[in-house]
Amino acid sequence: MSAEPLLRTRVKFCGFTREDDVARAVALGVDALGFVMWPKSSRSVSVEQLAPLASSVPAFVSRVGLFVDPSVEAVEQCLPHLDLLQFHGDESPEFCAAFGRPWIKALRMRETINLSEEAERYGQAQALLLDAYRPGTPGGTGEAFDWSRIPATLAKPVILAGGLTPENVAQAVHQVMPYAVDVSGGIEASRGCKDARKMALFMRQVALADVR
Ligand SMILES: O=C(O)c1ccccc1NCC(=O)[C@H](O)[C@H](O)COP(=O)(O)O
Q1: How far apart are the first and last CA of the chain?
Q2: 47 secondary structure, DSSP code
Q3: Is CB count within 10 Å lower at the N or C end of the chain?
Q4: Tell me, what's the ipTM?
């Protein structure tokens, strides 16, 4: 019998705005739920909306707040409702680490990015989320990037994001073998509204890819 550990690909669903969608995702066994705290997003929630959404999440499922170059105060008022912070802007490592909360740095895969340098720079991050680059859009583009650009070894766990869907996630897991996958648009019925069937299919495809 092989001594190889069976690594399960973690799943994060992002961009929740409705309690019913949160409950469905939790029932499907998702590992983390993302809430967009960037007011310019059509998926954003206010702190007042975040509170009941977050309090409906049970133990062992992480509540992740997404920020884009926020003020200190904007992050601090969300802290009671979050387990993890995810930064999508030009935040410095010092800023990201200033809240005493585990954090993820999102990196957009522009042509010139040097992932090894970024992994060193954001050495205190719990993981790096790699996403597609579209000028002027900090995240949630629904676009995939060329996964072959991800180095086989990186100093940080990789969360693969950008244009994942129930149709392509198994291929992504096989090719990249990320620590986790992250999806927003690929499991939606409309912007901010999740589709129960697509969420279930996505979870199933990740589980199937893991056992193959
Ligand atoms: O979703 C947004 O509107 C958003 C705005 C600003 C920063 C991040 C944002 N979303 C991040 C995500 O939903 C995901 O982490 C990731 O970008 C994947 O999105 P998608 O390509 O739609 O699956």
Answers
A1: 16
A2: H
A3: N
A4: 0.97
> How many whole angstroms separate alpha carbon 67 and alpha carbon 191?
18
From 184, 188, 193, mutation site for ligand 1 pocket: most ligand atoms within 8 A of C-beta = 184
How confident is the model at residue 5, as a pLDDT? Answer: 54
Active site residue 78: no
CA Rg value for the chain: 16
CB within 8 Å of 174: residues ≥ 6 apart:
209, 212
175-200 residue pLDDT tens: 999 999 999 999 999 998 999 999 99
Q: What's the pTM?
A: 0.95
Q: Which residues line ligand 1 at a C-beta cut-off of 6 Å?
A: 14-15, 36, 38, 41, 43, 66, 68, 88, 129, 131, 138-142, 161-164, 182-186
Domains of the chain: 10-211 (3.20.20.70)
Residues ≥6 apart with Cβ < 8 Å to 10:
31, 32, 159, 179, 180, 181
Residue type, 45: V
Ligand 1 centroid, distance to 6 Cα (angstroms):
29
Could you read off the pLDDT of 51-66 as tens digits, one per residue?
999 999 999 999 999 9
